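Model: Ready when you are.
Researcher: Fold this.
Model:
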Amino acid sequence: MTDDSNENDYTATSIKVLHGLDAVRRRPGMYIGDTEDGTGLQHMIQELVDNSIDEALAGHCSTVEVVIHPDNGITVRDDGRGIPVDFHEDEGKPAAEVIMTTLHAGGKFDANAYKVSGGLHGVGLSVVNALSSFFRLTIRREGKVYEQTYKNGTPTSGLEEIGETEQTGTTCYFEASVEIFSEVQYRFDTLSAKLRELAFLNSGVRLAVTDERTDEKHEFCYDGGLQEYVAYLNGAKTPLHDVVHFQRTVDGDIGVEIALQWTDAYQEQVRTYCNNIHQSDGGSHLIGFRTALTRALNNYIEREDIAKRSGVKTAGEDAREGLAAIVSVKLPDPKFSSQTKDKLVSSEARPAVETTLYELLSDYLLENPKEAKGIAERMVEAAQAREAARKARELTRRKNALDLGGLPGKLSDCQEKDPALSEIFIVEGDSAGGSAKQARDRRTQAILPLRGKILNVERARMDKMLSSREVTALITALGCGIGSETDISKLRYHRVIIMTDADIDGSHIRTLLLTFFFRHMPKLIEEGHIYIALPPLYKVKKGRGERYVKDDDELEDYYVASALDGARVHGNDESPPMADEAVQALALRVQQTRENLEARARSIPTYISSHLFHVPVLSHEARGSDDDAREGDLHNETSMRRWLTLLETELLSEEGRFTTDLVHDPETSRYYPKITRAYRGARDTHLLDQNFIDSRTYRSIAQLNADLDGLLDEGAYFEKSDDQFETTNFMDGLDWLLAKAHQGVTLQRYKGLGEMNPDQLWDTTMDPEIRNMSVVDVVDAAVADKLFMDLMGDDVAPRKEYIKANALAVNAANLDI
């Protein structure tokens, strides 16, 4: 935290420039992470949130809000000081533009601006800008509102003063480029988990996330900090003692904070942070933590003669069984292994953490003999269980050595010996296994049928688990070992596919298997080796043709393709048909825009948005005086009232009574349309605000309006087979084609694999060329750990609460009654 004297130190002179930007779009993975699997996309938001948290660390920000808009635009806003807007003498442009367009430019290089920061490299904001097709920066600072827009990292306007305000802060709205990212779909649960942990790490700071696609909203604010975090992690587990909390400043500028608690669980959960950023790969602070923990506990056990009485030798892994801990360090100049900051490599972190924990934990054990004894006995029990598990593993290995080369008898192995080319299907029961064996490709596909439901490993220690025949068969078939002995290089199949029915038994078996992999083979999940087979949802028959369709989205694509197949569009009654490619491109754009409008229906219903195709486009750009400004100038009240009149005319075709008005935004001097509908005793009001008007969806409406204007003249018609439909409205013609595409179609919906014979099973679920599978990953380890404990553990109460909280979200059609 900085003192008040530093508040005025954050100016243009604080922005240090290290230069360069073009490489970002060419090699985005170096700066933001993987652009194919969604991690880089999520990291775009994280970079902006980290900047806001840096303001909180400096003592100038108390609220951070993130909004996922229906078309996957993102808004991140805070109430910090606002990015400096004064002129940067060295660069010859405003400081805000320097930060947005130059790599290695930011206040994080100036110790007077930020004492502690997670934004080390100064590339976060400029990288997000470079990888966005559209970016709008709004700054509230020193009583003024400033705005600048960018396209693909290049300014499309200057930094303009657009209004006055009493607030401060920075608001960023961006749309990730579809040219860079393979798919632009944000995961609300990932983002929510990230903000939750930041709220724990920054006590008193309010963080909120809203998903306008689903109307879901989470808000986090914790005064208890790391102690509350550990309590949250442990959830339904039975604690052995109260949460222990240590905090110390080392060498004047290294902050160390640790909270820990042992429970009756069997799993370790230690999370490490540097300057509020989670290091999934640990680093020097984790090494220091583990070293100090083991040394302090072993010294206590030796001093009390506990180890000698028990007859076992304790190790570091015994100390961490059942432990939940948070290790947070604050460094003025942290060093990470990469821009994604997954591993801390600052050498000074290890001795700071190691010294702090060893000294303070040793004191705690001396001052709290009852708690110390319970922790030590817990460690000894873990050592005894580890020794029993070792003996059980040796026994299992000896038994397997006598059994057909060590592989389980029920395994139908594949011929391929290269693990990268091999896959194994885990199926329920011998009958399902029989169908799968008939359907498979023997060269590359192995089948392992499991008899009944495997052991719930959440409630079993290692020695008991290894006595289960189904579990040992699975471990032996995979060949890579379990727990600390897992050797991923020995995995016999690089795709482990869970293939169960869609009924309640199949779901339960799938859950038990996922629990096993999460607890005892997490590396298989982390490295993307675990899959779930996804059979198609529909079989579509039309005439003699049939095809399988995986979901509702693909079904809609099928209807569009069928509608356009053989269709012809004539611009008037004498013109030749338009080019098929042009018609198809327009039709796909219309359907995509309609889907985006449907996604926004919660905030702007389609009974309003569908009419925006037929009125002038709204614009932020001032177009002239009252007399010469055309309809839709947001800066001009007269222009906007004329626009409302046009919209009211369009709305006459809708049910209900509509009233319209304008809402004036004093900060931007703009007038936004407000539409109210009274219908069947209810009143709904909706605002076409800046977020909607700047959205990808509304811009696509504007572009479609321009492209469709004048496309069809009098006498224009659509033609399909021997039928014709006369219209000058392209969208009406497309709807006519879609209606014809639905004619004569028979849909068969599948409920499970049990309904399929071997040929169908191969065609839909096992053929690598056409099948669909879902790769299993862990969005957030803390949330996953808590969920597995709540749903699969011994305590009934958390399970009951979960069912009550989520009952309304269950689709009754999916219940097996």
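Researcher: Now this one.
Model:
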Amino acid sequence: MRPHVRFRLIAGPRRGGATTAEPKRGGRLLGRGRRAARCGLRGGLALAAALAAGVLSLAAEAGPAPASRALAADLLGSAGDAVRFDDRARDRIAITAPAYRLVLGKRGGALLSLVDRRSGRRLVSGSRGCLWRADPVGEGAPTGGCAFGQRLDYAWSRASSTLTLDYSDGAAAVVARVTIIARPSFLDLRLTIRNRTAPVLESVAFPADVLVETRAVRAGYAPTYLPGLRLGPGFFSRPGKLVRTYPSRWAFADYLSLDIGGRNVSLSSVNPLPSPLQPVALGFVRRAEGRICSGRFFCVTHSFLTWVETGASWRSPVVRLRLGASAQATILAYRSDNRIDRYPSLAAKLGRRGDILARAPLVKLDLVKEPVPFRDWRSILQRLPSPSLLHPVSFQPGGHDESFPDFLPPQGSLGTTEEFRGAVANARALGSLVMPYLNLSWWDDGSPTVGALPPPLTPADIAVRDESGVPLLERYGEHAGYVVSPYAPYVRERVARLLEEWRTEVPADCLFFDQLGARPWRRDLNPASPDPLAYYDGWLGLLAPYAPRCLMAEDGWDRLAASFAGFHGSVLMLAREHDEPDLLLGAGNWEPFPLAIWLLHDKVLLYQHDLAEQTLGADDEIVSWNLAFGFLFSVNADEASPRFRRDRLELAASLQRVLGPHYAGRRLDGYRAVAPDVTETRFGDLLVLRNRNAEQTRRVGGNDLAPSGYVARTDDRRVLAGAFAGLFNGVSLSPGTHHVIVERGLQSSEVRQPVGSDTRLAVDPPTAWRAGRGLRADAYAADGARIGEVPGSLRAGRFEFRYDGTLDGRRVALYRIGLAPDPARSVASFGGRR
């Protein structure tokens, strides 16, 4: 029986037999309730058995095979055609645009297929359900487009290329309207629902799980862990899932994409500031055989987290399906769509601190593991590189994870607040900056603040609460604390006092907030919250006025970059500490990919995790990883740690000083694979080649990149740094890995080897050197004292000399290659302008 469809025809030209129509005027108006709320996705996405029949896939819409491209072009029309609408078929609606063809079912509006018109390749092969699905709290049955079956109204507006679908059966507990706006290379979908009589709706899948053919996918991209992930075909062909909550450490953007054929198709939300943040559970799912999202297909899931009470309405952000040339193109489109490109620059947030931070490695000062009193800090500071970003942790009473939010006065064994202030002043005098560890959002249940709440307040008044009114208590080992609501008046007042303490009592250059960029979004039903969805909106609003204070966070996500200046965390830490990516995704099925670098690198500084020992350092993998993805270096100052090495500390400091100004806060201009296991990254004038192979060298342009090695150089050839094993500039090195840093000046060049055995080196002469002019090499100590001259010679336009780590019994910090005296002028050039 033909589905019952109502539409209104508008007189006008007909193209290709297509019917044109415009939306009905004065139709049913969906009530406007308060904005809905959202929380973690309920376990499982299974539909009730009654909706299982709503699964539509490849068989529902037989599209052209990729091999028949000429035929496909004939069937789909030329790419120059305008957007066309065709509903002549009994059971389907087609929208054809220059880049794609979308087919929907008239029964429930199910998404049947999305085809790339350029190649004729199917990008989407169906959907689980009928375009949308709403899930109630508890064990109630979901409802969605499929429940309306033959009772779907639709209308097409040719003027705006908009299809409107009305799900408005008078007896339905939930009614909805979907609009689909067709643009040349993307589709905009938007859903409005009204909960008439159903229980609270805690999630709304939109679009309902999309089916993609497994064998068609070359790669997938997910915003999981900084800087993002590229998933190989092996991930999609095995049972498993990667579904995470945005915003959090596990999803820094509401964006997913797939490489299918020669195209990248992305699914993302368009929801820029100042619109309220909309949390969502998103990712990829492949189930065991015999179930939906299995066999030939996996699912792309995108489920908004909501709290739509009976009688209330909720409207989704725009959901955009975009066809692009690459993941780079679609993540940059997400950046533009959500106005992230308009966020304040790092220079605006940091001022003069920006130049210092670009050259300064983060140095963790753990005052539990190395409890040096503040009055004795000068001895420690003098052994650290300058500049540094000093990061004192565990200085509050009780040590780590204790006393939050009461950080001052500090532990008595370390000294007084005034002595802490003096230690910070000493650090500044040596050219460094100070960033204390703080936590605003998790309050120790045994802290002075929680223990002395002013009557009649109780922990329930300050905490995030669940739907039963129970305050959220989180435990970390033996430590317990309340996740506090940013809307509770007492929380806001205490946060303001804490920030003032670090402006006046111990003036800090930057402020680090644990958990704020890592914790998954929470539903907040504290009575002070204006909306159960508004947990992170509250923190964003509370901290935005403090953006000039150089705010940094554990991990981070897109909107946080509007006011924060630094994010700390990466997939490298999760891989080293917990083996999480391999356990979740399968070994060999993933690799880090710079989605967040394209998205945010000119808005925030990126660091490894501020506490994790596994990534505090400068081993070969960390060094090449940081440079390839534009991360600043983080090291540990604890000399008693088995991981501490003085030469690696010097390496991190030297690389940060020399290379940092060329990549910190710069936009990512390119990232690609140039050879097996070799990637190329470009930030402005800096090019970085990285060897991802941890066991074998890779030959690149006369240099052998060491296992996990790299070479970084500026376009003007004035700066070069790398980790080499075998050949460097065509000269054989002594065995082992050599970290070499060369800075070429006008009259002289400086050569450092912080890590590596004594060896011969060949380096380019200073830029003022001309053929026939002599060169000399002099060794210098760390204090700037000249140790002595060493022999060298010019060969093939390069100066060769032996780099010895000690000379005349003194440790060499660098060799300076300078112009020898010019016999024609009898004027010594050594010591002249570099």
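Researcher: Key takeaway?
Model: The mean pLDDT is 89.
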